[in-house]
Amino acid sequence: MTTSPSLQRFLLTMEYPATKDDLLREARRDELAPADCSALEALPERSFSASWQVSLALREPAEAAVLLAA
To answer: One of this protein's Pfam families, by short name (predicted)?
Structure first.
């Protein structure tokens, strides 16, 4: 999945580490588009240390799980 420009901006402004719940809470607070919130809802239940980790998990969920576990 390709992240939208608004989702990319949102991820860059988030404070990390952040859990999936943190991301969803802040996305709703920032009134992110429903499609972007849906993408965040598909993330695995884990903590992310940086925006690139979230972006990777959004693009290739199966591949990201392997890379992020390493």
So the answer is: DUF2795
